[in-house]
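Morning. Coffee machine broken again, so started the prediction first thing and wrote up yesterday's gels while waiting. Chain of 106 residues, entered below exactly as on the submission form.
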Amino acid sequence: MNAVILGALASYFGEPDTAHASGQAPASVASFVSDLCECGPGYEVPSRVLYEAYRAYAPADDLAAQHASVFGAALRSACPLITSVRARRDGRLTYLYRGIRYLPVT
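Came back before lunch.
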């Protein structure tokens, strides 16, 4: 990314997350996937369900927890098998992450 753009983003949002900028998932996303998810073919979860579970899991000051698009990119960094799809469920179109499932705490 252009140094001018990075500088502008840093001044607006604070220092950038270097792990995310380098293509690695932020620690909280990687921990979330490790602790509460399983990656593999044939798994899928509604994107809203997974994002809301992550928001409950992540620290309040984590930028990735505030923006669903950032979360999606970080999620794919943590588990490259994941794809985003739009599929019909119960007669309605919904967004899904394929290649991952959420293992809620029971």
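The first helix runs from residue 3 to 13. Going to sketch it on the whiteboard this afternoon.
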